[in-house]
Design brief:
Keywords: Signal. The chain is mainly alpha-helical. The protein has a domain of 50 residues. It has 4 helices and 2 strands, in the order αααββα. The chain has a two-stranded antiparallel ribbon with strand order 1-2.
Length: 101
């Protein structure tokens, strides 16, 4: 009887844990444009990339997919940020900081 109780308890624990793990696994694409590697490449290589002759850099146009510019509260630290500070608490101010370059 003890063996059955232990088996049932183990099955119960596995069942409780398996649901969130399975749901979490399916929500993050492993390939394609929305996979983490592709998003990172797009954020760095297209969002921040600037070439000679490019038009004016407008943060909200190039990086709005990666920064919430409507609910701007947050912590944005960037040790490469130009100006007198590298720490911002507003995504719109953080973005505007880069536009003058």
């Amino acid at each position: 009887m003890t063996h059955i109780k232990i088996s049932l308890a183990a099955a119960f624990v596995v069942g409780i844990c398996a649901g969130p793990v399975a749901a979490q696994d399916s929500s993050c694409p492993r390939a394609g444009a929305d996979a983490p590697l592709a998003l990172h490449a797009d954020w760095i290589m297209k969002g921040w990339e600037r070439n000679e002759g490019d038009g004016k850099f407008v943060f909200a146009q190039k990086l709005n997919r990666y920064y919430d510019l409507e609910n701007t509260k947050g912590v944005f630290y960037d040790n490469f940020a130009p100006g007198s500070t590298q720490l911002f608490d507003n995504s719109a101010r953080y973005g505007a900081n880069w536009e003058a370059l």
